[in-house]
Amino acid sequence: MNRIRIRLANEQGNVALFVLGLISIMIILFLLILNLAGALVVKEQALSTSQQAALAATAALYEELPGFILTYEKDLKEFIEEEEAAKEEADPEEPEEGEEPGEEKKEKTLDELLDEETEKLAGEMAGYTLNEIRNEALDRMLAKELDKGLGNGMLKKKLSEELEFDWIKSMKESARNTIIANGGELDGAVMTVFDDGQVVVESSHEAGAIGYNGFFANVKENLFKSSKGPEVKFVQKIPGWEGRTYSLE
């Protein structure tokens, strides 16, 4: 009788251990599923943050262009006037028939060309905001002007200089601020200008694991994602600006 009781007690103990072990395994599997789901959510957050940062950096570039155009127009006008004065001094020409002395064919300004391009795009880009249409018009207009090579490539030189010494700073700052505002991590974040005319931002969000009894405890990892902004056509015509990478830390 005592042996039967001992055997039953042992069996009950073994069953209890088995059940406890099974429960522990189930909890670990459940936590694993939770952590995988959490990692997917964090990856989506990282993707959204990088997308917004790339858009913000591209928007910062476009914000610099109107002021630049005004300055460039003045510099180009001065350059043309100096060239014409030097040419006139070296080889004076008689005015053509019907043309008064000093009368010249007036070239359209970049602002006028921009307005024309904006008007053309208004029909093509129905449903877009005026700002989006204006940015696209800016891009196309500058791309055409870069092809002309006016002023011995003055536009190309000045755009490259502005990018080098000013605009990149604004673009980096916009990308950084966007990452921070979205709860992302600056550690390891980078901005590439340009990849086929697109700003690329790679950033991360921190994923923390849910732990149990030593499993997954204190496990943290930055999950990285990269995204591209909209294509900027005119930068593809400026040499030396493909694939430059800048830290956002």
Provide a brief overview of the structure:
The chain is α+β, with helices and mostly antiparallel strands.
Task: Explain how this protein is built.
This protein has 249 residues and is α+β, with helices and mostly antiparallel strands. The chain has one domain (1-85, 109-247). Helices cover 62% and strands 14% of the residues. The chain is built from 4 helices and 4 strands. A 4-stranded antiparallel sheet has the order 3-2-1-4. α2 (110-124) packs across α3 (130-148) and α3 runs antiparallel to α4. The chain is elongated and about 130 Å long.
Question: Any chance you could write out the topology, listing elements then pairs?
Answer:
Layout: H1 2-90, H2 110-124, H3 130-148, H4 150-181, E1 185-195, E2 198-208, E3 220-228, E4 244-247
Antiparallel strand pairs: 1-2, 1-4, 2-3
Helix pairs in contact: 1-4, 2-3, 3-4
List its salient traits.
249 residues; Tad_N; four-stranded antiparallel β-sheet; elongated; alpha+beta; transmembrane; transmembrane helix
The helix-strand sequence is HHHHEEEE
Number of domains: 1
Question: From the helix content, strand content and strand pairing, which structural class follows?
Answer: alpha+beta
* Oligomerization category of the chains in this entry: single chain
Count of β-strands: 4
The helix content, as a percent range, equals 55-70%
Distance between the termini: 76 Å
The order of strands across the largest sheet is 3-2-1-4
Sketch the major β-sheet.
4 strands, antiparallel
Mean of residue pLDDT values? 85
Strand content: 5-15%
Helix segment tally: 4
Which residue ranges are poorly predicted, with pLDDT under 50 across at least 5 consecutive positions? none
Taken from the alpha-carbon principal axes, the silhouette is elongated
Radius of gyration: 32 Å
